[in-house]
């Protein structure tokens, strides 16, 4: 008879799902809210870029640190701090009177979000083993994926009929419920007295990424010759180089560089850079252009990409099973190329806009390719590293995907030619297709299928949400 979860284990899953749901929901709401934020606070494309990238800078830089902090101070304590921080930042976003305070609050929200997903999964893996753990992670994946569907639609409804500010307050209710459920847990934090935290490494990484991204976003306004551009760029690159050097020498690095000696790990992460950079670019551009260029409401813009998400949910599990049987190389090659074809279909978008003939075919083809790609990509990367280090391998891949997204969004003005009009939208579609093709080519030449029979012992892995 299959083992079933007891009350406390179900409570653990509920806490993990709700804590992660908060971060995923916010990430999927923001794209449909960007035009309304721009109209209300001003700042044009630059404000929209920073609204996305301020969150991704701190999320991508600190998600590596989150595992160390969770181990050292305990998962429940870290979850509680992350939830409270996320709620306070969400309220600050909702009341922000100008772009500067909004961007600062988004950065704080990203920092809090970095501690939610890793800690929630660590709570599951530290309290359950074997089939129960796999079952719990499956429930976590299914329910948090629902946030990527609900977010744009719920956010669009709030933007259209209430206010974009209230859309960011949606998080407060599940956060309050999660904090209450944490008081009902009988599980207690177990702290490792020998755990050390590389705070300096986290600071170098955050400031390094921040300096480079600032230069890329503000360069169209000030020009490369301005000291306000080239100085942060040079300092940012130097700080990030210092971060990488420190990871080679520090006793307990937050980014173990030796992982990149494994072929499928470094190749898979290279493919991740291209694929997730393309996903971020596509999500941003489609969400904004359908409102500002095509004249759709925020709700309809949120509904527009739902076919892609539904295909991802339907196909991911099957693609993962087939990749386990045949190896991930075929799927990681074909999937991005299919997505590239879907991105190019957006070139049919014209001044006389028609969603059904110009956008829907792209969403369907793009979703087909995404469903083929995501699970095999995650399995190839995590499967290349021994199970004892799968947690840090997952964190590294998650950070790589976030950093890829923030760099591409930072370069948006250069990609679209300064403004997101129809010509800029077409340029973005071509750039998205080029990035995806690069991801497919990197996978074809770099990924190696494991020997037949090597996958008989499988471990549960989680799929990083696009």
From TrEMBL:
It holds the Pfam family MFS_1. The keyword Membrane applies. It comes from the Bacteria. Keywords: Membrane, Transmembrane, Transmembrane helix. The keyword Membrane applies. The chain crosses the membrane at residues 12-34, 54-70, 77-97, 103-124, 136-158, 164-183, 195-217, 229-245, 266-290, 296-317, 329-351, 363-382, 403-422, 428-447. Residues 12-451 form the Major facilitator superfamily (MFS) profile domain. It is found in: Cell membrane. Its main location: membrane. It is a multi-pass membrane protein. This is MFS transporter. It comes from Microbacterium pullorum.
């Amino acid at each position: 008879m299959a083992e079933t979860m007891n009350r406390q284990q179900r409570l653990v899953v509920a806490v993990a799902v709700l804590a992660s749901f908060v971060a995923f929901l916010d990430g999927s709401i923001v794209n449909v809210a960007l035009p309304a934020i721009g109209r209300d606070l001003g700042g044009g494309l630059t404000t929209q870029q920073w609204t996305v990238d301020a969150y991704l800078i701190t999320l991508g830089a600190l998600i590596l640190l989150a595992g160390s902090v969770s181990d050292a101070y305990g998962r429940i304590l870290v979850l509680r701090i992350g939830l409270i921080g996320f709620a306070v930042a969400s309220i600050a976003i909702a009341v922000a009177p100008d772009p500067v305070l909004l961007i600062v609050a988004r950065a704080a929200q990203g920092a809090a979000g970095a501690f939610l997903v890793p800690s929630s999964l660590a709570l599951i893996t530290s309290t359950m083993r074997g089939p129960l753990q796999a079952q719990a992670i499956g429930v976590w994946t299914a329910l948090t994926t629902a946030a990527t569907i609900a977010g744009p639609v719920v956010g669009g409804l709030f933007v259209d009929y209430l206010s974009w500010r209230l859309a960011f307050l949606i998080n407060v209710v599940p956060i309050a419920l999660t904090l209450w459920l944490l008081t009902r847990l009988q599980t207690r934090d177990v702290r490792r007295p020998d755990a050390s935290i590389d705070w300096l490494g986290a600071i170098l990484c955050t400031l390094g990424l921040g300096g480079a991204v600032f230069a890329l976003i503000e360069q169209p306004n000030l020009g490369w010759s301005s000291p306000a551009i080239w100085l942060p760029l040079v300092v940012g690159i130097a700080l990030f180089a210092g971060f990488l050097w420190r990871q080679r020498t520090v006793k307990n690095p937050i980014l173990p560089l030796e992982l990149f000696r494994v072929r499928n790990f470094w190749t898979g992460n290279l493919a991740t850079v291209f694929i997730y950079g393309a996903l971020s670019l596509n999500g941003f551009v489609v969400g904004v252009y359908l409102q500002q260029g095509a004249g759709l409401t925020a709700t309809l813009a949120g509904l527009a990409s739902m076919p892609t998400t539904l295909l991802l949910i339907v196909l991911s599990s099957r693609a993962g099973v087939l990749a386990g049987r045949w190896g991930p190389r075929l799927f990681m090659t074909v999937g991005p190329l299919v997505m590239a074809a879907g991105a190019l279909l957006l070139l049919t978008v014209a001044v006389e806009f028609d969603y059904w003939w110009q956008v829907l075919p792209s969403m369907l083809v793009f979703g087909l390719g995404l469903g083929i790609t995501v699970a095999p990509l995650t399995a190839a990367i995590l499967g290349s590293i021994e199970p004892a280090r799968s947690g840090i391998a997952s964190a590294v891949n998650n950070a790589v995907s976030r950093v890829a997204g923030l760099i591409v969004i930072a370069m948006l003005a250069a990609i679209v030619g300064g403004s997101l009009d129809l010509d800029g939208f077409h340029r973005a579609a071509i750039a998205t297709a080029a990035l995806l093709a690069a991801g497919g080519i990197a996978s074809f030449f770099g990924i190696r299928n494991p020997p037949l029979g090597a996958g008989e012992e499988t471990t549960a892995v989680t799929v990083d949400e696009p």
